[in-house]
Amino acid sequence: MACWGLGRTLWDGVAERGTALAFGVLIAVGELVRWAPARVSGPGRTAGERESAPLGAAGALAYALLGEVGGRPTTHDVPQVVAVVLAAGLVGLVPRIALGTRGPALDHLARRVLTAGFAAVCFQPLYNTGTLAQWLADGPAYPLFMIGLLALTALCDAVLAAALARAGWPYGPLLRDELQALLGIGSAVCATGVVISLATAVAGLWALPIFCLPLLLTQFAFRRFAAVRTTYHQTIASLARATEIAGYTPHGHARRVAALSRAVGRELGLNEPDLDVLEYAALMHDIGQLSLLDPVPAGATAPLPAAEQRRIALLGGAVVRQTGVPAEVAVIVERQADPFRDQPVTARIVRAVNAYDDLAGERAGPGGPLRALERLRLSTAQDYEPGVVEALARVLARNGRTA
Length: 403
What we know:
Helix content: 55-70%
Number of helices: 17
Strand content: under 5%
Structural class: mainly alpha
Order of helices and strands: HHHEEHHHHHHHHHHHHHH
Radius of gyration: 26 Å
Distance between the termini: 43 Å
């Protein structure tokens, strides 16, 4: 698609060069001020990755839906839309490549080009041939057409985003999360893109800086919010390391359990908010061991009496409640000693993954991960949820960790 757009544009020439340059600069600026993903926890991706350059997305959408500039009809076509969005996106990638910034930059650019191309294919041929004016000359039909086109474009972008994030994970939950995210920054991007297009048709190119400023300020606000979330996560992770520093749990145990729990939760189709709660609970599930006078060997509490397990879990939940994390996190920690049939699914995940990491530690030797998984399977009748254990097995097999 990129080759087709560039080739046709070079062959036919650029129509309305000033307009193309103005929108190209807008898209490039949006890509240059994009923020990096907030954080990556385990083998999944997090919120903050969905639309890291809303100004660039709105500019691309506005150019794809542009019909007039200052009252004069435009003549650019679909290939030129693709070429302008592609060229601007490549300009936005130059500093990231020069600085060695890691991330799925080409995937992001491909998604941007495909989404803008889809919107242009739905709008530009109808507008340039006059069909749109004949069908929607009077009444509320034109706004309804634009709303329907926005809905289709947003759905296209969500499908592409979920496909890029799949990497072996169930596609349905990923698509659901993307569709839910459209109610936030996605709706702002679509609305701003249409407003820029309509305002440019009346006021000319001066509408670009005027109507882009609110979205640019919102983008900086989202960047600050992402930074706060990252700091918050790092604080929780540092608190979780207290048991390792005090010698109650093996080094890296909380981090491994959190990463693997999040992967299992994604495998089971949990949404992003539940995955965040699950990760925090997995990081802090052993915090109650700080109440013990002597550390438990290897940090494994399973051999302890049920009453002692219950006391540790309740003390851990009490500590978690003082950290300011959501109350659901404390509930998961408190219910680690309950029978698994009485636990919520998030608590069942932490319970199974914690047991796996205890059994598959460095002392297990060669084949330890496979033996640990078999022990969990043999205990599904009483101690662990069978569906969670099988999801854990699939995650381990995907990452080559069952040998």
